[in-house]
From TrEMBL:
One of its GO terms (biological process) is arginyl-tRNA aminoacylation. It comes from Cyanidium caldarium. The keyword Transmembrane does not apply. Monomer. GO terms for molecular function: arginine-tRNA ligase activity; ATP binding. Belongs to the class-I aminoacyl-tRNA synthetase family. It comes from the Eukaryota. Keywords: Aminoacyl-tRNA synthetase, ATP-binding, Cytoplasm, Ligase, Nucleotide-binding, Protein biosynthesis. It catalyses: tRNA(Arg) + L-arginine + ATP = L-arginyl-tRNA(Arg) + AMP + diphosphate. This is arginine--tRNA ligase. Residues 12-96 form the Arginyl tRNA synthetase N-terminal domain. Its EC number is 6.1.1.19. One of its GO terms (cellular component) is cytoplasm.
Length: 611
C-alpha cells in the first residue's frame, strides 16, 4: 500500500462508489476510470463511463449518467458537491466540497511534522541516487551540471517524503588514463611523486591534454604508461601516491562547484569497487554467463543484436585483463544492494548512456546480482544543454564552458540586476553582505530553475537573459513571489514587514488563532485553496516519474492563482470585516508562502526576504 493524499483518497472513494452503483443499478461491472478534471471549470474529477455503459446497455448515455448521479449523490455527501454535474453527452463531473478543501488546508497548516500535510510513504525505502559523477582530470562539463542539479532535487524530494537517501558520487577515478597521467607526471613534475609533496599541477585539464598528446605521439611513452597502469593496480607506492594526488586536486575543484550549488554528495568513485571486480567475473562465470571471445570475456546480451542479428556482447574483461566501465557498474549494483540495502537505485546521466544501463541492468538481473521483485534499478536520463543558437553549448571562442565560470557569470549578472533594482527603489538600501548573499542565491537559483523547469528528457537551451528575467517562469520571479507573499502575510498578521518571521511560525500562529474552520467565499480563494491542497500530489507524482518540471509548473501556477486571489480578495480589511474571512485569507497567504518556500527548497533554491 502506498501513501495517499486527500485528493487521491477522494478519487478512490468516488471510484468505489461508482463500481458499487454500476452493479446495483445496471448489474454491470466496469472500471469507472475516474480522472482528474481536465479543466478547473469541470470541477476536480470526471468520469465518462456513462458513454461506454450506455453503449453496452443500449441506453442513452445521458440517461445513464442521470441515473448514476442520483444513486451517487447520497453516498458522496460531505465529500463532493451535490448536485453532481452531468455535462455534454454524459460526462459526470465531481467537485470537492469547500468543507473538504478547508479541512485539508487546516491539516496542512497544523501538520505537527512540518510536512504541509504530505503523507509519509507506507514503506520507507532506502534509495541510492547516483548523480553528478564527473571524471578525474577531465572537465566537469554542463552534462555533469545537469546531473548534479536534477540528482540533488530528486534526493531532496525523496528525503522530504521520508525515504532514506544515499547520495553517491560515482566519480571516474580509475582506468587506463591514469597510467598516462602518472607517466606524464614522472616526466614533467617528478618532484610531485616524492612522499609528502603537495601537488600543484595547475590546470588539470590542460595537464590531461598535454599527457594525451604525449601518449598519442610516442610509442615508448605508451609502453611506459601501460606499465604504470599495472603498477597502480598492484598497489605500487609511488603510483598510488601520484594517483591520489591527481584525485585530490580534482576533488578540490569539484568541491568548489558543490559548495556554490549547495549540494551534498558522498564520493564513492569507480576505484572503490576495484577489489570486487574479479569477484563479479567469478559470479558471471559460475552462472555460465561469461564467455571468452577473441581473448576478451563477454556476456552475450538478450534483445541486443548486431547487424547480422547475432547477440551483442557486453565486454566485462578486456584481452589485457583490464576491466570495463560496465564491470564496475555491475560490482556497484551488488554492493549497493547487499551492503547499502538499496531498494531503489537511480542513475542520473545523459540520455546517451541509456543503452549502457539497459545492458548492465540486464546482466545484473541474469547474474542474480539483484532481485527485480525487491529492487528497482532506474536510469534517469536527461537531454543535452544547448547554446542559445540551439547548437552545442560552447564559449564564444568555441571552447567548452567551465562550470565555475558559468556559475560565477550567472551570479555576476544577477548582482548587476539586483544593484540596479535597489537603486531604482527610493529609500531602499542593502549592505554588501546582503547583496552578495542575494546575488549568489539568485544567480545559482536561476541556473538550477532553468534546468529543472524544462522537461528532463528534452534538450534545453541555456540563456542567461531568460533564466535571470524577473518575469515568467524563472527562479527570480518565484523568489520574488515568495518575498511578496511573505510580506503580505506578515503585514496581515500585524507584524512589521521586515520582521524575520519564518513561514512555519506564521502558519502556527494562523492555526492557533483561528479555532473556527476556514471559509472560502470567493471563486479566487476557492481556486487557490484547491491548488494548495494538491502540493502532496505533485510530490508523489515526482516520486514515481522523477520529472521535476512538474513541480516548477505547479509553483508557477500557484503564483498565478495567488495573484488572482490577491487582486480580488482584500487580505487586510477594516474593523467591520468578517473576522473568519480575514483569518482564512491570512491562512491562505501563510500557506502559499510556506508551499513556495518548501517547493523552492526542494529545487535547491533559497528564498530571500527582499529581492
Ligand atoms: N562518470 C560518468 C560520466 O561522466 C558518469 C557515471 C554515472 N554513474 C554510473 N554508475 N555509471 O559520464
Amino acid at each position: 500500500a502506498t501513501a495517499r493524499t486527500p485528493y487521491q483518497q477522494v478519487r478512490a472513494t468516488v471510484t468505489a462508489v461508482l463500481v458499487e452503483t454500476f452493479s446495483e443499478v445496471f448489474s454491470a461491472a466496469d472500471d469507472p476510470m475516474v480522472t482528474s478534471a481536465s479543466r478547473a471549470e469541470f470541477g476536480d474529477y470526471q468520469c465518462n463511463a456513462a458513454m461506454r455503459l450506455g453503449k453496452a446497455l443500449q441506453q442513452k448515455p445521458r440517461d445513464v449518467a442521470q441515473r448514476l448521479r442520483e444513486a451517487l449523490e447520497p453516498r458522496l455527501a460531505g465529500v463532493c458537491q451535490v448536485p453532481l454535474e452531468v455535462a455534454g453527452p454524459g460526462f459526470i463531473n465531481f467537485r470537492l466540497t469547500d468543507e473538504f478543501v478547508t479541512a485539508t488546508l487546516s491539516r496542512m497548516l497544523r501538520d505537527p511534522r512540518g510536512k504541509l500535510g504530505v503523507p509519509a510513504p507506507a514503506v520507507k525505502q532506502r534509495v541510492v541516487v547516483d548523480f553528478s559523477s564527473p571524471n578525474i582530470a577531465k572537465e566537469m562539463h554542463v552534462g555533469h551540471l545537469r546531473s548534479t542539479i536534477i540528482g540533488d532535487t530528486l534526493c531532496r524530494v525523496l528525503e522530504f517524503l521520508g525515504h532514506r537517501v544515499v547520495r553517491l558520487n560515482h566519480v571516474g577515478d580509475w582506468g587506463t588514463q591514469f597510467g598516462m597521467l602518472i607517466e606524464y607526471m614522472r616526466e614533467s613534475a617528478p618532484q610531485a611523486l616524492q612522499p609528502g609533496q603537495a601537488l600543484e599541477l595547475g590546470d588539470l585539464v590542460a595537464f590531461y591534454k598535454r599527457a594525451k598528446q604525449r601518449f598519442d605521439e610516442d610509442p615508448a611513452f605508451q609502453e611506459a604508461a601501460r606499465a604504470q597502469v599495472t603498477r597502480l593496480q598492484s598497489g605500487d607506492e609511488e603510483a598510488r601516491r601520484a594517483w591520489r594526488a591527481l584525485c585530490e586536486q580534482s576533488r578540490r575543484e569539484f568541491d568548489r562547484v558543490y559548495q556554490l550549488l549547495d549540494v551534498r554528495i558522498e564520493e564513492r568513485g569507480e576505484s572503490f569497487y576495484n577489489p570486487y571486480l574479479s569477484e563479479i567475473v567469478r559470479v558471471l562465470e559460475e552462472r555460465g554467463l561469461a564467455q571468452e571471445d577473441q581473448g576478451a570475456l563477454c556476456v552475450f546480451l538478450e534483445q541486443f543484436t548486431n547487424r547480422e542479428g547475432k547477440p551483442q556482447p557486453l565486454i566485462v574483461r578486456k584481452r589485457d585483463g583490464g576491466y570495463m566501465y560496465a564491470t564496475t557498474d555491475l560490482a556497484a549494483i551488488r554492493y549497493r544492494v547487499q551492503e547499502d540495502g538499496a531498494q531503489r537505485v537511480l542513475y542520473v546521466t545523459d540520455a546517451g548512456q541509456a543503452t549502457h544501463f539497459a545492458q548492465v541492468f540486464q546482466v545484473a538481473r541474469r547474474a542474480g546480482l539483484y532481485d527485480p521483485e525487491r529492487v528497482s534499478l532506474e536510469h534517469v536520463p536527461f537531454g543535452l544543454v544547448l547554446g542559445e543558437d540551439g547548437k552545442k553549448f560552447k564559449t564564444r571562442s568555441g571552447d567548452t564552458v567551465r562550470l565555475m565560470d558559468l556559475l560565477e557569470r550567472a551570479v555576476e549578472l544577477a548582482r548587476a540586476d539586483l544593484v540596479a533594482r535597489i537603486a531604482e527603489q527610493p529609500g531602499r538600501q542593502e549592505d554588501e553582505a546582503y547583496i552578495q548573499r542575494a546575488a549568489t542565491a539568485i544567480g545559482v537559483g536561476a541556473v538550477k530553475y532553468a534546468d529543472l523547469r524544462s522537461s528532463r528528457t528534452a534538450d534545453y537551451r541555456f540563456s542567461y537573459e531568460k533564466m535571470l528575467s524577473l518575469s515568467g517562469n524563472t527562479a527570480p520571479y518565484m523568489m520574488y513571489v515568495f518575498s511578496r507573499v511573505s510580506g503580505i502575510a506578515r503585514k496581515a498578521a500585524g507584524l512589521p514587514a521586515e520582521a524575520a518571521v519564518e513561514m512555519s511560525e506564521l502558519m502556527q500562529r494562523c492555526a492557533s488563532s483561528s479555532a473556527q474552520p476556514m471559509v472560502l467565499r470567493e471563486a479566487a480563494e476557492q481556486a487557490l485553496g484547491r491548488h494548495l491542497m494538491r502540493f502532496g500530489d505533485v510530490l508523489l507524482q515526482l516520486e514515481s516519474d522523477l520529472m521535476p518540471h512538474q513541480l516548477c509548473e505547479y509553483l508557477f501556477e500557484l503564483s498565478q492563482r495567488f495573484n488572482q486571489f490577491y487582486e480580488q480578495c482584500p487580505v487586510v480589511v477594516g474593523a467591520d470585516a468578517d473576522e473568519r474571512v480575514q483569518q482564512s485569507r491570512l491562512a491562505l497567504c501563510a500557506l502559499t508562502g510556506a508551499v513556495v518556500q518548501r517547493g523552492l527548497d526542494l529545487l535547491g533554491i533559497q528564498v530571500l526576504p527582499r529581492i
